[in-house]
Amino acid sequence: MQTNLADFIKGTPDGDEAEAILRACVHCGFCTATCPTYQLLGDELDGPRGRIYLIKQVLEGAPVTASTQLHLDRCLTCRNCESTCPSGVKYGRLADIGRKVVEQRVPRKMPDRIKRYVLKEALPRRWLFEPALRAGQLLKPLLGKPLQDKLPARAPAAAWPARGHVRKMLVLEGCVQPGMAPNINAATARVLDTLGVQLVAAPGAGCCGALRFHLNDQEAALDDMRRNIDAWWPYVAQGQVEAIVMTASGCGVTVKEYGHLLAHDSAYAAKAERISAMTRDLSEILPAFEAELVRHVSTRQAASDGGARPAVAWHPPCTLQHGQQIRGKVEGLLRAMGVEVKMCRDAHLCCGSAGTYSLLQPELSQQLRDRKLANLADTGAERIVSANIGCIGHLQSGTQTPVEHWIELVDRALHG
């Protein structure tokens, strides 16, 4: 693709990166076939190829309009197009750069500005989010159905192992996950404890930065990233931990990009690169313990009455299969442990959660959720498992079928 970037961005780090991405695109359109919003809306500008043209025009100095902003807002950033693209176009990074410029050029209407401000200031702060969540759960019968659907049932805080081990790994507690589903990290700690690994949560670490970054408050997001690096660095520098474990794939894909996003920060570039290199999704950690897990499960089953093999439908989050390009690991591990894992039709497509997308684009998000749930229901499984808190909460809002993190299934197989 021919490019002629405008002076305001030419020669800058964002400009150089965007130009390289634009030049990689060959206009083939393979990406449109796997774009969820293009499938729903049928508009070229609501698919990756159309949005690439819009961003190109913006970066070349063309007038920026509210229509441009709308088409970029409708993008889920699911990155399915990256998995499809034969040219390796890094669409997600281009979308981030384009949205940043558009956000600076097009004033949003006041209701939209207020909503986005509340989301980016409240969700990443646990001390704000958790009391608000508890209040909503108490008042749930008085709220309208859209809000009721968004509020998960209150989950009890599960026990965290007390014993220590020589082997240690850090875990990112995150921002909304501890309030919405505190058992996810606790289950991870219990499973790893059984395997002789201690899971450590560093005081001071918080939101990974994805929420603010994708709401176009990128400077504040970079500060979130620096704060996490500062919280983790003593453990990393002293060699106390062997990995940084991510139990939410949405956080994992962001932390793995710290090295790239902070590459031009002289004070943090090297540290960020090290942090990203040490970051592993939970599905990358546990397969190394497969034989031990299978042995523990077999021993427990032999001591009990056995029972039927559980059947679950596996929903792979976009941030896992497209963002991190991790496929097959969860399914393989669960099957080795005796779980019947069923894949649904169009498993590569987004469920519509996409961080705050379900709150900012509720109509499109709900259509994608309902389509995904229908496909999951067709598997006949009586339980759905996933790997990202956003997907779990979003899917659960539209079904009575239990939806949980796959590590909770592993935890029950080991401990009951």
Q: Helicity level, as a percent range?
A: 40-55%
Segments where pLDDT lies below 50 for 5+ residues? none
Structural class determined from secondary elements: alpha/beta
Q: How many domains would you count in the coordinates?
A: 4
Q: Which of globular, elongated, flat, extended, rod-shaped describes the shape? A: globular
What is the total tally of β strands?
8
Q: In what range is the share of β-strand residues? A: 5-15%
Radius of gyration, CA atoms, in whole angstroms:
22 Å
- Give me the side-by-side strand order of the main sheet: 2-1-3-4
Q: Supply the number of helical segments.
A: 25
- What kind of sheet is the major sheet? 4 strands, parallel
Q: Please tell me the overall pLDDT.
A: 94
Brief account:
The protein contains 25 helices and eight strands.
Task: Name the descriptors.
416 residues; alpha/beta; Fumarate Reductase Iron-sulfur Protein, Chain B, domain 2; Rossmann fold; 4 domains; four-stranded parallel beta sheet; 54% helix; globular
What does this structure look like?
The mean pLDDT is 94. This protein has 25 helices and eight strands. Helix 12 crosses helix 25. The strands form two sheets. Strands 2-1-3-4 form a four-stranded parallel sheet. A four-stranded parallel sheet has the order 6-5-7-8, sandwiched between helices. It starts with 12 loop residues before the first helix and ends with a helix. Helix 24 (389-396) links the parallel strand 7 (384-386) and strand 8. The longest helix has 20 residues, at 218-237. The protein folds into four domains: 13-105, Fumarate Reductase Iron-sulfur Protein, Chain B, domain 2, CATH 1.10.1060.10; 112-150, no CATH class; 167-284, Rossmann fold, CATH 3.40.50; 305-415, Rossmann fold, CATH 3.40.50. The protein has helices spanning 13-24, 30-33, 36-41, 48-59, 66-73, 80-84, 91-105, 110-122, 126-138, 145-150, 177-180, 183-194, 210-214, 218-237, 249-255, 258-261, 269-278, 282-285, 290-303, 318-323, 329-336, 357-360, 362-377, 389-396, 406-415, and strands at 167-171, 197-201, 244-246, 279-281, 311-314, 340-343, 384-386, 403-405.
